[in-house]
Write a structure and sequence with these properties.
Elements lengths: L10 H13 L6 H14 L3 E5 L2 H12 L5 E5 L5 H8 L3 E5 L10 H6 L5 E4 L11 H11 L2 E5 L7 E2 L2 E2 L6 E5 L12 E5 L2 H11 L20 H12 L1 H19 L5 E3 L6 E2 L5 E5 L1 H4 L3 H10 L16 H7 L5 H9 E4 L7 H16 L2
Parallel strand pairs: 2-3, 2-4, 4-5, 5-8
Antiparallel strand pairs: 1-9, 6-7, 6-11, 8-9, 10-12, 12-13
Helix pairs in contact: 1-8, 2-8, 3-4, 3-7, 9-14
Length: about 375
């Protein structure tokens, strides 16, 4: 069976976690401090800040940058945290459609939805595909918007050779077990703005500016040193893990790129994909069966698959209740036809070719 993900700690990562457990210093401490510095240096940012999850890594900049009622442009085809953390910071997510080829935020649709209340945009580097940085920054500059980049799936992605973690205004990462880098639960924000970093740190730890001196109402969003110790070790092998994912993706691209009825995610020109997920679109009329039937056929052939995401955020009951029904045609088509295939660093190019062969067999019914 070729699995959809690989979740396995190395010996050095286990030893690092055990050493922290033995030390008794389980809370945020020197391991978190070191992880922040090392991660920021790796991506080329001035500052890094650990947090308890990828969701908190998004919530903290929203708390620092938004006022009640502020609007944030959010792609509808993504995980709900990109939008829900806007809501929990008192803002309103404005759902934007995505490009049918790159699956990334449609900037023309975004610009049409800007109002006097719009203060920020949160582009998602979906599945590890980096956004078009100059285009997003151009839109933000024209309309005086802050940018909160959602890089939860994009550890190691670059645009024109610059890591996405080095971009302004702030970048949010997740270290959830399915991600390219994982520590269990955990997040990281990077920024080049010391004042913004300072504000986020206040919100991360109950607004404490000195013992029992709370200058804002914050939260407990701290990472533990156990998680940070694992993250420090994983960071050492991030580049090698990415190299394996990219080699696997190359095999899938060659094998599936010309297959009738299959469309693959188009890489942003100038970008280097991190391949958190490798997703295809299945055209039932051309391929001979739909997405769900293909998944069943692959399972019988020893290949796991998954659906990310089966509905857009504008289709989620929680947001329909708040904002009413709306239509985003590209997002809705992707939700009906998308299928994620194995690409992780726990497999090799032979297994990637097995995936290609299984899809070819499934298409012909062999």
């Amino acid at each position: 069976m070729v699995g959809i993900a690989e979740i396995k700690l190395t010996k050095s990562e286990i030893e690092a976690a055990v050493a922290v457990l033995k030390s008794g210093n389980l809370r945020q401490g020197p391991q978190c401090d070191a992880f922040e510095k090392e991660f920021a240096a790796h991506v080329g940012a001035k500052l890094g800040m650990t947090s308890s999850s990828g969701s908190s890594a998004l919530h903290l900049p929203y708390l620092a940058l938004l006022n009640p009622g502020d609007e944030v442009l959010v792609p509808s085809f993504t995980f709900i945290a990109t939008a829900s953390m806007v809501s929990y910071a008192g803002g309103k997510p404005i759902f934007v459609d995505v490009d049918p080829n790159t699956f990334l935020i449609d900037l023309e649709d975004a610009e049409r939805k800007i109002t006097p209340k719009t203060v920020a945009i949160s582009p998602v580097h979906l599945f590890g595909n980096p956004c078009d940085r100059p285009a997003v920054e151009g839109l933000a500059k024209r309309h005086n918007l802050k940018i909160i980049w959602d890089a939860a799936q994009a550890h190691g992605a670059t645009y024109d050779g610059v890591d996405v973690g080095a971009w302004n205004d702030v970048v949010a990462y997740s270290f959830y077990p399915s991600k390219n880098m994982f520590v269990g639960e955990g997040g990281m924000t990077t920024t080049n703005d010391p004042e913004l970093d300072k504000q986020m740190r206040l919100y991360r730890s109950h607004g404490v500016a000195g013992k029992y001196n709370h200058v804002v109402l914050g939260l407990n969003y701290r990472m533990t040193d156990v998680e940070a110790a694992i993250g420090r070790e994983q960071l050492k092998r991030l580049d090698s893990m990415l190299a394996i994912r990219r080699a696997n993706a190359d095999v899938l691209n060659v094998g599936l790129g010309q297959m009738a009825g299959i469309s693959i995610q188009e890489l942003t020109p100038g970008g280097a994909h991190a391949w958190h997920q490798y997703c295809i679109l299945v055209d039932e009329a051309e391929f001979g069966c739909g997405r769900d039937e293909l998944a069943e056929r692959l399972q019988k052939r020893g290949v796991q698959s998954g659906v990310h995401y089966p509905r857009g955020l504008h289709q989620q009951p929680a947001y329909i209740e708040q904002q009413g029904e709306s239509t985003l045609p590209v997002t809705e088509r992707l939700a009906e036809t998308i299928l994620a295939l194995p690409v992780h660093h726990g497999m090799g190019t032979n297994e990637a070719q097995m995936v290609v062969n299984a899809i070819a067999d499934a298409r012909t019914g062999a």
